[in-house]
Amino acid sequence: MNGTFSLLLLITFSTPVVPAEKNEYKGSEKHLATIRGYRIKIENEIEEICRDVLDLLDQSLIPNASTGESMALYYKMKGDYSRYLTEFVPGEKHNPAVISAYNAYKIAAYVAQTEFKAAHPLRLGLAVNFSVFYYRILNSRDRARCLAKRAFDDAKAKLDVLTEEPDDDSILLMQLLCINLTLWASSGSGEREGISCGKTRHTIGARIQSI
User: Fold this and answer.
1) 194-207 pLDDT, tens per residue?
2) Is residue 36 domain-resident?
3) For 59, which DSSP code?
4) At 104, which CATH number?
5) CB-based contact 48:84 (threshold 8 Å)
6) Is the pTM of this model over 0.85?
7) What confidence score (pLDDT) does residue 204 get?
8) Which residues form the signal peptide (predicted)?
């Protein structure tokens, strides 16, 4: 599963490069046709990977989930892989992918809030990705900001009363929430932002973050 996810990330982040290449080959229909063919090939590979993972989740992993943690994880994964599809699949496939992602995230959120404390990495990771889904796919920006801010504030309040060192994954995910909140507040200017996240500080180029 990790290998599949890494491959998906590699393919996904290569996709935005393709349209940019058009400027280099302006006026050359042959090169543009090659680029279009390459993009279609990439998108087909992404779709095949996503659907394979979604089939595995629906047919095996989710029906056999025996704990709240596994249920939350698998529904989060279903939301994530459905969201990946919404980024590029055409109209007749887009809406079902959006609905699938939304429903899966809602179930995962309910289970995570029931099973885990606010600073648990799985609950925070879900908040990161669900808020990105609201922002980028549903264009519900106020809802995205509200979800991300509540998750960050709740986790920070929990960490503030801890006597031991917090989980590194929790801190990283809180940073991602903070990065997105700062980016969304600045309307995505593309400038570098200094992000202060309580006990940590992180500077990163402005780009919406998900996991």
Assistant:
1) 344 554 444 334 44
2) yes
3) I
4) 1.20.190.20
5) no
6) no
7) 38
8) 1-20
Whole-number mean pLDDT of the chain?
82
With respect to residue 124, please indicate whether it lies within any of the assigned structural domains. Answer: no
Report whether 61 contacts 78 (CB < 8 A). Answer: no
In single-letter form, the type of residue at position 11 comes to I
Which tokens go with 186?
Answer: 């600045």
Q: What span, in angstroms and rounded, lies between the C-alpha atoms of 210 and 83? A: 11
Structure tokens at 196: 């202060």
Distance CA 53, CA 6 (A): 13
Coil vs helix vs strand at 196: strand
In the structure encoding, which two tokens stand for residue 101, read together?
């992602």
Residue 208's pLDDT is 54
The answer to the question of residue 141 being in a domain is: no
Cα(211)–Cα(195) distance, rounded to whole angstroms?
A: 18
- The parent domain of residue 56 ranges over 2-115
Q: Is 125 helix (H, G, I), strand (E, B) or coil?
A: helix
Q: Is the pLDDT of residue 94 over 70?
A: yes
Which residues lie across from 201 on neighbouring strands? 196
Any domain includes 52: yes
In the numeric block, the tokens 């289970």 are attached to 111
CB 131 within 8 A of CB 147: yes
Place of tokens 């504030």: 153
Q: Measured in Å, how far apart are the chain's first and last C-alpha atoms?
A: 15
- Residues 31, 39: Cα–Cα separation, whole Å: 12
Into how many domains does the chain fold? 1
